[in-house]
Amino acid sequence: MNYEQFEGYDIIGDVHGCGETLVKLLEVMGYKKQAGVYQHPQRQVIFVGDIVDRGPHIRQALSVVYDMVTHGHAQMVIGNHEYNVYCHATPDSRPGHTGYLREHNTHNERLVHETFEQFANYPLDFKEYLEWFSRLPLFLEMPNFRVVHACWDDNYIAKYQQRFGTNCVTPEIIVASTEQSSFEGKVLDRLMRGTSLSLPDNEVIRSRDGFERRIFRTKFWSNDPKTYSDVVFQPDPLPEHLIDRELSEAELSKLIHYPIYAKPVFFGHYWLHGRPTPVRYNICCLDYSAVKYGRLVAYRFDNEIRLEAGNYVWLYVDPPEEPTEYIND
Fold this sequence. Notes:
four-stranded mixed beta sheet, alpha/beta, 16 strands, six-stranded mixed beta sheet
């Protein structure tokens, strides 16, 4: 790909079926629909993944994104929800295995319900999107920045490229990744779901979506962290008595650190709230809970070394008349 053909990039956070808002955001940023595809004369969009699930216009969102990517006006990395949908829809054909690559239990069914429902009468389109999901980039290493869905891990990424010679997933890699203890399972989980720590002493967090969780998501950029409050990075707060709990040596060994001198990295996944701003001058999370009636956010990157709050563009997502309950997973 000739990166020099673009003067800048517009990196867009988790869409989650907010197709109408996505179209409005593209138009606000100067993208126009020409020959059926949204495009800009000098810029390219990069999507951080999680286009599917939850929202009311998943088919519209996928159509816009897919057409932009296939015509060279956008790129996209795979999110954990594209991965979930692919695995939920794909039979496990390995010897000795039955069912699908992802178990069809109540929790998993609920996560992908809207996607499968909205494609129920469009099986050929759905099949085409599934094939596309299975060959998307897992991460993007651009000349002046990086993109991944949840976590940039230099060690895993270097080993992945050395082993597979690509930055993309394949159907074979996805199948292997369903064994969580495999190399593929560890890498895909890290890059698409991030780092986390187990809550101590069988503690449980009841999240705002009603589910009990025994882990909490952590930053992958903390410098010399001491306590849980130094590393927690998720919308649901820790129990108050755990905020100042000191990290053990075992817990510290599970954390990674993205250097302050590294290229800016863009990602989604974490359901932030409030006014968009860089987490750090080279750390940018673009998921601001669009499908929970928050903001669908883009960062307009022009090859600056230090990310700036003034480069964000966003639109609020209006709630429907009857709010829908969503699962944060």
